[in-house]
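#struct-pred
JK: can someone run the complex with BIS(adenosine)-5'-pentaphosphate? inputs below
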Amino acid sequence: MDIVFLGPPGAGKGTQAQRLAATLGIPQVSTGAILRRAVDEGSPMGRRAKSLMDAGQLVPDEILTELIRDALARPDAAHGVVFDGYPRNEAQAATLDRLLSNIERRIEAVVLVEAPDDVIVARLAGRRSCPRCGAVYHLEAAPPERQGKCDQCGGNLMQRDDDAPATIRERLEVYRKQTAGLEQRYAKSGLLLKVDASSGSPDEVFDLVREALDGRKKK
Ligand code: AP5
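RT: done, structure tokens with the ligand placed:
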């Protein structure tokens, strides 16, 4: 089962994609997380991506194509993938359709995680992540047991460079200009499922995600 999570920065795509991937037993492919790892490792891909990510801009499509092709070729992706943060424009959406069709698969659902700007800004300002294992926390909504330390691996929690207020504004703008149009594309093809993530805990929002996906199966 191949599922796409779409939505503005900070709405909670990663939080929900991680829960769904664990429930379905398939990998979560977070393009942002893969790119951040490449930046940390100082790989050629990471060096190309860093300044764009720090500015809140999209990384070139060809880098993402390579990354998604690699992710789909992994043995653990044989039964489906939860895409988190990809596609982000029309060209990427067309590429994803093509890459999946090459292996006789197709997107089965697109979950749009929605939240208003004031909620997004509060979520991103309070987000802390573990650079070692990728776990994500929130200072108020999902705090770690020990302040500043990852519950899962004990790593030191960090604030993402692109969660600075000016970069958040830019990322929201980039989402509106380049990504939001995908809603129409997926609504037209009957794949779009909207989930209101503006209130409720991550677990409560996950109940809505599951209800939306289950409702689709019954239709
Ligand atoms: P990426 O990492 O994908 O960032 P994003 O899309 O901006 O999304 P975020 O990860 O910031 O937010 P999220 O919606 O996943 O929220 P989260 O679950 O963490 O991309 C980063 C950059 O990489 C891009 O700007 C671009 O440069 C590049 N890039 C990536 N993909 C690309 C692509 N396809 N093409 C080109 N460039 C690409 O939640 C946020 C916080 O809220 C957390 O603290 C969480 O604990 C908390 N939270 C979540 N849900 C709730 C809730 N229900 N209640 C309270 N708190 C909550």
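RT: quick notes.
The CA atoms of residues 1 and 80 lie 4 Å apart.
The first strand starts at residue 2 and ends at 6.
JK: thanks, will look after standup
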